[in-house]
């Protein structure tokens, strides 16, 4: 106890002399941790960044968390996946998939709006092609790392409910699709072996969050 008291007193005295606050020390330590993790997993992060760059995701955000709105969200998801299946399974690369999405946004919005209206709801639908943050996402047979992805975003009503997201290209969540195929071997290997990388994914996401926090960036993963 005496030793701990002495350490605390010493730290307090050092703070008083230097004018450095505890929160500043914590921030500096967190930033160093984030940088160290990023450097330590440098090659792994590069593969993750490459995978993010070649991925187009689908993000459907429900009006609210009510049972009805959550069920409606899944109906809209199913309608969009059924309507777009052949587009994205036939895409030769990410750029082609993005071009498909951009040129068919109005059609996607019409499909989603029709699905909503058929269920007796008057919720508005907004479909857009965006770049947005996603958390590390675990699926049944693979995991995608956290970070910024291009996405077809579908907002239902007030868009204040839980979301649903998967991957349009490569066609990882299309029921009629062929197996996913990334252009680079290391990307495909990362996908196949992703369930063994939980610790690395968690470490990289922690590093991203610390960097955002210390640079006062907006909070990610808000849906």
Name a few traits of the molecule:
223 residues; alpha+beta; four-stranded mixed sheet; two-stranded antiparallel ribbon; 8 helices; 6 strands; 54% helix; disordered N terminus
Give your account of this protein's structure.
With 223 residues, this protein is α+β, with helices and mostly antiparallel strands. 54% of the residues lie in helices and 17% in strands. A hairpin with a 4-residue loop joins strand 3 (137-138) and strand 4 (143-144). It is globular.
Oligomeric state of the chains in view: single chain
Please report the number of helical segments: 8
Order of helices and strands: HHHEHHHEEEEEHH
Strand order of the largest sheet: 2-5-1-6
Radius of gyration in whole Å, from Cα?
22 Å
Strand content: 15-25%
**How would you state the average pLDDT, rounded?**
79
- Helical residue percent? 40-55%
**Could you say which overall geometry the principal axes of the C-alpha atoms support?**
globular
N- and C-termini, Cα separation: 47 Å
Secondary structure tally: strands: 6
| Largest beta-sheet details | 4 strands, mixed
Q: Helices and strands: which structural class?
A: alpha+beta
Q: Any low-confidence stretches, pLDDT <50, length ≥5? A: 1-8
């Amino acid at each position: 106890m005496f030793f701990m008291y002495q350490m605390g007193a010493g730290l307090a005295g050092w703070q008083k002399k230097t004018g450095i606050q505890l929160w500043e020390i914590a921030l500096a330590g967190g930033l160093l941790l984030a940088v160290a993790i990023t450097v330590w997993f440098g090659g792994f992060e590069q593969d993750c960044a490459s995978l993010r760059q070649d991925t187009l995701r689908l993000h459907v955000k429900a009006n609210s968390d009510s049972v009805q709105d959550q069920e409606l969200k899944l109906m809209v998801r199913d309608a969009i996946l059924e309507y777009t299946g052949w587009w994205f399974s036939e895409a030769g690369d990410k750029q082609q998939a993005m071009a498909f999405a951009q040129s068919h946004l109005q059609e996607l919005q019409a499909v989603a709006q029709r699905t909503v209206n058929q269920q007796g709801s008057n919720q508005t639908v907004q479909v857009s092609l965006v770049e947005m943050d996603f958390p590390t996402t675990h699926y049944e047979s693979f995991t995608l790392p956290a970070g910024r992805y291009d996405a077809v975003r579908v907002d239902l009503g007030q868009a204040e409910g839980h979301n649903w997201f998967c991957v349009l290209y490569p066609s990882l969540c299309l029921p009629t699709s062929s197996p996913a195929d990334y252009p680079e071997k290391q990307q495909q290997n990362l996908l196949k072996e992703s369930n063994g990388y939980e610790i690395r994914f968690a470490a990289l996401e922690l590093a991203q969050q610390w960097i955002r926090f210390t640079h006062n960036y907006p909070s990610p993963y808000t849906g």
